[in-house]
């Protein structure tokens, strides 16, 4: 199956209560995560996480769907329109 590369932006309201759930979902999908950056904003009682990902649309949909089902978590993704074929995976 073809793979796509992109970014997932995650905004977490009240991270003290949901960050463990967010981290568990990201860990479950660690095989598609190429990079991660998190910025805590305690003065806003919020946090922002960005993920660079490479995976199939099913894998990416699973990640974003599970994250989006956590109360207080907002998720947006942007993916390349070009798919990476099997030959690109071996580079």
UniProtKB/TrEMBL annotation:
Entry-linked Gene3D superfamilies: ACT-like. Chain A, domain 2
Protein name: CopG family transcriptional regulator
Entries under InterPro entries matching the protein: Acetolactate_synth/TF_NikR_C (IPR027271), ACT-like_dom_sf (IPR045865), FeFe-hyd_TM1266 (IPR023860)
One Pfam family from the record: TM1266-like
Stored SUPFAM superfamilies: ACT-like
